[in-house]
Amino acid sequence: MAVTRLFTGKGDQGDTDLLGGRVAKDDPRIEAIGALDETDAALGLARATATTDRTRDLVLATQRDLYTIMAELAFTAELRPKDYGLTEDRVAFLEAETDALTAEVALPPQFVVPGESVSGATLDVARTVARRAERRVVTLARSGHVENAALTQYLNRLSSLLFILARFEDRAEGAVVRLAKADPSSSS
User: Fold this and answer.
1) Cα–Cα distances in Å, from 84 out to 66, 75, 95, 169?
2) Structural domains of the chain, with CATH
3) In the prediction, which pLDDT does 95 show?
């Protein structure tokens, strides 16, 4: 049986491959793709700990969208296939799912403290990682490396979906959210 090597050594000098050539490992595109990869991994943990099929299905759909985004960012403009990339219908999908969950889950009128359920907490971690990825992609967009506005829109909507999914999972586990600002009359 042939053994596949997981390393090549080609990156030992601090550069790596993008679709279209080699770039420095600290290139802003690599930073953005890395942040998206971290988001995908955090979403994988969230999916593994989710208690509902609805959450698992939504998270898997977003993970697949992230692969499309990472591939789109990895192409140079010259090599990117004409009709390849994340489409606005995926932004609309996130908006519709977020609205549907928001209609089902009552939210308090203040910030909440994450951590009332394992599944909700993992979604909150994924949300914060997704926000970092969004910031990296915004940096790329502002420097002219992102032509598709749907990428930044999608990542902005993703954090909203993950927030409400965390509250949905909290509710599914019977957890009551805690408010960030403590009520002076309570001990928690």
Assistant:
1) 14, 10, 22, 34
2) 16-105+113-176 (1.20.1200.10)
3) 98
